[in-house]
Each structure stands twice: as C-alpha cells, then as structure tokens.
Amino acid sequence: MKTLVVYFSLEGNTAYVADKIKEKTGADLLRLVPKKAYHDKGFAKFFWGGKSAVMAEKPDLEEISVNLDEYDRIVFGFPVWASNFTPPLRTFIEDNRERLKGKQFVAFACQSGAGAEKAFAKLAKCLGIDDFAKTAIFIDPKNKESAEKNEQIAEFCKAL
After folding, report:
1. Bridge pairing between strands 104-111 and 73-79
2. CA 29 to CA 19: how far, in whole Å?
3. Strand pairing partners for 138?
4. Strand 3-7 to 28-31 pairing
5. CA 121 to CA 138: how far, in whole Å?
6. Cβ atoms < 10 Å from Cβ of 115
7. SS3 letters for the chain?
8. Which of these, 55, 66, 132, 148, has the minimum number of CB atoms within 10 Å of its CB?
9. Cβ atoms of residues 7 and 31 within 8 Å
10. d(CA 65, CA 155)
11. What is the pTM of this model?
12. Buried-state track 128-138, b at ≥16 Cβ within 10 A, e below 16
C-alpha cells in the first residue's frame, strides 16, 4: 500500500514524527506550508493559532505538487490547536476532496497538553468518515525526545 504523509508542523514536532514515518515505512511526505506564516512564539502563537483552528479557517497554501491518485493511504499529521486539527489540513482536504475519495485514512497528533481525541473526531467529520484506520497521539516527541517516545513512534509505524 503506497502511503503519503500530509502534515503541518509549526515547531517541528509533527515534522519529526513525519520524518520517522518516512524513515521506517518508506512513505512519501507532503508538508503543508501556508502562504502567510503563523506566529510561532508567545501569546500570539496560542491566540492566533487557536482562533484560526476554532473558526475553521482555510489559509492559502504554497503550491502543492503531488499526484494523490498514486496513493492508497493518507496519513494526516498535525499539532493540536484548541482541541482542533490545524487549518492547513482543512485547506488541503477542501481543495482535494474528490481526489481523496476511496483512500484509507490514518492520523497522528502532536500536543503538549490535551485535545487530540476531539481533534481526531473533527478531522474525521471534515473528511466525511466515521473513524480512522489508526490514530496516535505523541506528547512533544521532538521537544522532549526520549527512547520511550521514539518507541511509541516505531510501534505506530509497525501498525502502518
């Protein structure tokens, strides 16, 4: 099964997991990059990121060049913002809704606190599915790296 990891990463945690998935499974990566960058420090990061997620905004993304028809499985990766998935994923899904039909969906979330389960439910609803084939939650996998966290990522990769 050919796999594409579609992800957004602000602080590098989600990119860290995406890179591990590529390394362990051979999946291809598609990093979503908004044309207008999000704040990445202090109160502004939490305020504007949370507002953008809660308001279900769809930011313009940098050009994407991937043929989704080549993939059977899509793995979505994102940091949790206000118990939501990040807006760049919403843009990607809306822009590619027809091309995503018939794919198997998997998701992973990176967080420092809580909210990933709610974010998975909202992402599933956005995709028009009842549930994911597999999900995983990683707590600060890059910022607070440990052998235990890396083993958790490895187990997730084995399940793919």
Report:
1. parallel
2. 8
3. 110
4. parallel
5. 17
6. 19
7. CCEEEEECCCCCHHHHHHHHHHHHHCCEEEECCECCCCCCCHHHHHHHHHHHHHCCCCCCECCCCCCHHHCCEEEEEEECECCECCHHHHHHHHHCHHHHCCCEEEEEEEECCCCHHHHHHHHHHHHCCCCCCEEEEEECCCCCCCHHHHHHHHHHHHHC
8. 148
9. yes
10. 30
11. 0.90
12. eeeebeebbbb
Please give the pLDDT value at position 40. 65
The angle that helices 87-95 and 116-127 make with each other, rounded to 10 degrees, is: 20
Structure confidence at residue 24 as a pLDDT band (50, 70, 90) = very high
Q: Is the pLDDT of residue 11 over 90?
A: no
CA atoms 112, 154, 27, 129: torsion sign: negative
Q: pLDDT, tens digit, for every residue of 63-103?
A: 998 999 999 999 999 999 888 999 999 999 999 999 999 99
Interatomic CA distance for residues 127 and 120, integer angstroms: 10
State the average pLDDT for the chain: 89
Which residue bears the tokens 């609803």?
Answer: 125
Residue type, 14: T
